[in-house]
Input
Amino acid sequence: MKRLFRNKSLLLIVLVATVYGLGSCEKFLSERISKNSSLPLTTTDQLTALMENYSVFYSDENQSWMGTDDYGLNAKTYDNKRGNFTFMPNIFRAFWDVDFAPVTTSGDVLWASSGGEWRDIFYANAVLNNLDKVTGGSVEDKARLKADAHMLRCYAYWQLANTYCLPYTEANKGEMGLPSKKLTSFEEDLTRQSLEKTYNDIEADLKEALKIAKPLVSGGRPEHWRSNTAAVNGFAARYYLNRNNYAEALKYANLALNEYNVLVDYNKPAEMYYGTSATYTVTGAPSFTLQLPYTHNNQTNLIDMIGWKEFLYFRMQNFGSWFYLPSTELINLYDKANDRRYEFHIVENYSYYFGSNTPTNGLPGYIFFFKDKIPSGPTTAEMYLIKAECLARTGDMAGALSTVNTLRAKRIKPGASVNLTAANQAEALTKILQERRREMPFVQRWYDLRRFNNNSDPADDVVVTKQFYPITFAGPDVSQPIKTYTLEKNSRRYALPIHNNELIAGRGTLLQNKY
Output
């Protein structure tokens, strides 16, 4: 892991590409990295360029979702097309196999120095460490940069903590957390701090981020590719929901919705994009023509994604293997006749990943943007769901159902199927949590499983079971009988192992991986 923080060249790469507009970094990349290889940060404009580089920050590479009950990889689907399930790290994640996962040498992009959350933490630290040293810029500019960097850092740490650490509880707070990185120096201590220390750091960053004064909508358009008031409030709502603090989660969800509550109407596909010839201009970048976002024929154009009207904070879950395989349990949650999300996002007999000549492989696919990208940053839809859940958990059943039905009116065909009803608070909560799963499959389920199993309500506990072949170093052993894998509610396998390359680079003792 030490190598993660030697990479001061990342800072130079961004500055060269964004501040000075040079077309290539090949010459620099061919040079040996040294302590003195970074370009000095001297102006506020340079720090702003770092924070506006949305093409670097937008991608959430968290693949913990494979371990959820949303992911439908099983022996039957594996046998259907074995050649397409050769990505072994993904199989390890899908079945929580910590015995073999640490020896994998690739596939853990979330932690990696080249494109993971430590890179984002490095950028945030570069801004915070230099903010008092640079020239130019107003007091307001620097205040925004400070809050922006704290948001970037707490978002990154939040993802890492919810992947490589156990859920935060009183019983677990003394368990291993993460290295506390506040500098860009690679001499900084990399020892994993306690989980309590990690969460204290996240919340401290969040409190600083909440001081931001930049609204989401500026000049008549939402600028969600950088931190803003709605984005930070939205992330605060997510954070406190996952801490089972429903009063605070409701407070921040309301603040976000009070500022921006736009929902895309799936019953009016024309609202799902800005028009076939419309353009959406991003500061510091040219105008782009938008395309319909939810089709699997779409391109990987960032601007298709950045135009999604429900974003508070532009982040996309990115699965490089191009295939979200929904479980039968997930598919059965949808009203196939009336739910537009099933119509637009679930592709039956999905063939894109398997090639155009296999239209009857029998495997479904979940599609949002292109083949592998799903909104993962805070959105207005998520805020409605957080609000509804908090109201249900705190006794306001009528308010909870009214809130969730506001969202459903934009997702379900008009008619009797739109409004959810419930006979009591427990039933209302169950239906709202099912709606949350339908609305945000894959991206929030891992976090939800962790919090459901560690709150005061046993009714929402989930034990995940899957059937698959025994896993060996060489891969699934198809000669053996299928076995049942179980992820119990208090399993230590809720903390994913750090892969072996990083343990070696971090000398193991600092990153000890006892989970």
Remarks:
- The mean pLDDT is 82.
